[in-house]
Amino acid sequence: MQITRPTLLLDERIAKRNISRMANKAKLTNTIFRPHFKTHFSSEIGEWYREQGVNCCTVSSMEMASYFSKAGWENITIAFPFNRHELPEILELSSKSTINLVIEDQDTLDYLIQNSTERLNYFLKIDVGTGRTGLNANSDLEHLIVQHDKINFIGFLGHAGHAYRSRNNSTIKEVYRDTFQILKELKAKYQRYNPIISYGDTPTCSVIDRFDDIDEIRPGNFIFYDWMQYNITSCSFDDIAVCMAVPIVAKHKDRNEIVIHGGAVHFSKDYIEIDSKKTFGKLVALTNDGWEEYSQDCHLERLSQEHGILKVSDNELFDKLKVGDIVGIIPIHSCLAANLMGSYLTLTGNRILQMPKNTYL
Amino acid sequence: MQITRPTLLLDERIAKRNISRMANKAKLTNTIFRPHFKTHFSSEIGEWYREQGVNCCTVSSMEMASYFSKAGWENITIAFPFNRHELPEILELSSKSTINLVIEDQDTLDYLIQNSTERLNYFLKIDVGTGRTGLNANSDLEHLIVQHDKINFIGFLGHAGHAYRSRNNSTIKEVYRDTFQILKELKAKYQRYNPIISYGDTPTCSVIDRFDDIDEIRPGNFIFYDWMQYNITSCSFDDIAVCMAVPIVAKHKDRNEIVIHGGAVHFSKDYIEIDSKKTFGKLVALTNDGWEEYSQDCHLERLSQEHGILKVSDNELFDKLKVGDIVGIIPIHSCLAANLMGSYLTLTGNRILQMPKNTYL
Prior knowledge:
Two copies of one chain form a homodimer. By secondary structure, chain A is of the alpha/beta class. Helix content of chain A is 28%, strand content 28%. The longest helix of chain A is centred in the middle third of the chain and has 21 residues. The interface between A and B is large, with 66 and 65 residues.
């Protein structure tokens, strides 16, 4: 395949293996596998999940819910605090697909009780330690539980976002243990409502062996992984399924820097710090059947709108890389890179499209 | 107008005033005004420039060049180091529009000499102190100057990206003085080739009064400005032409945090530091005819993919803001937010579309 400008490569074989591994782990404990689709945004990739027996999914916006409902997904959780302004659209959608909302305050619940005209399920969002959204598990939640025709409590939903602060398997497992404990106690405390516990984040779902007593998992990023997940220790290098192919457009010997066409409009500006240095992506070599690591470590050090700056401290590698070469960058955050790129090029040369974005009028 | 989810508002009146002010300043000194279109990405907004007599533009990618050529722009500079893989497309485009490239190395120039079949103009990119791309102005540039039918040197191009490190008018003016000096000396040294000097960045072009002896300017961001430019002191609050309208979806009294639907997929993840704290955007109130500052200062403190977290230290403001309210966020970097949103909603209710993105293949 002829690549001329920034292109998001997808190794279909790795992505399908990642899906299959997670699906099989969920099957071990009869855990519902409700993958988050905010990583790939693609109905075609959604089919790869269906091939593994998956029949429900998670999304993070109304637009995504509409898109995947049209693509035949009949049970969708919108894992984002419910936005009352979108109720008319949600009601319309609920005539086609079962929609599960996420709620975390009385006022919003009251709004739904008064205004819902179709059966809408909801989870209560629990803050399991991340400190982003969610209710305190120790507070009284009884008044937030309603089960009737138009609005129906189905369980507790947690997302251990703080697992992203880990840099080794044992702290990830600790996060899982603590989170599981919180959700398990809630399930016991409110058992008369028969709640399920829904749990999700790629680091913990990747690292633990079994989901005993977890009713449902919702990881998303694991289908592709990325350089952040690698550094969290959620995955090995060989599990990473996406890589941005980019042309080298300039070299600066005086400061050992190489400029690529690949910037914030391709990668977004998420970064991680490795040895106190910001890193926006990892340089790899493109090969006939994918990509591989160079023996020397090299990272994207700065990004502007279209430019990326590679710091190539190793002189041998610096000399080897030429203006006009196409190299690979493992993105820091594959969800954001995928969202920006809008499509994928598989290693067998197929273009896979995503949902149209921001079509809201 | 009814806003239900993240929507990029555009105050057309302010944007047109920003264009008119810059166009008039350029006219004072007969300086060519070649605005950068990588901020707005829209042929409809391009017409606002034409109304001010502008007939040439700057872009940062091949796709943008194609789009604006189709929209009738007959003289386009691609202000990004030339990517040889795109030569076939550039040659095709050059039959419709005059294309000016940017080059900074012998190898790429040789490639063009051997392979160009249409007349392509080029600038030599000069590093005026930013340290991103460009040639050292003190090095010998003679061997990089070619003027013939197929490849034709037209001048020196500089971009004072380091002006973005300024936080007051006087350092911005210093950057301008130094940059101007570098470009002026180059023009004198190579006068036998009759080069023009092309200069551009929003901070300096906004702050200085006159462009004496500058042949051409290429600012882009100034049409919208943003919270970064405000902090650089490039603009006043009233010059900012875009604002993201977002719904409040959760409140957390225990930590004085408010959660909005507005994250990295709407703003990107550019930030600035104010008093050593990361800031991803500034909270404003939406009004009947636009937006205005709250008396209390409040910023977006964290962003994840769809969530934004506002730190609302002031209790009065915290209590005033309710779940379900639509508030405004002045983006840190309007170019990146615009790119992600794909369209604008004007204050008079018109939807303005951008170029389709990443349609490659």
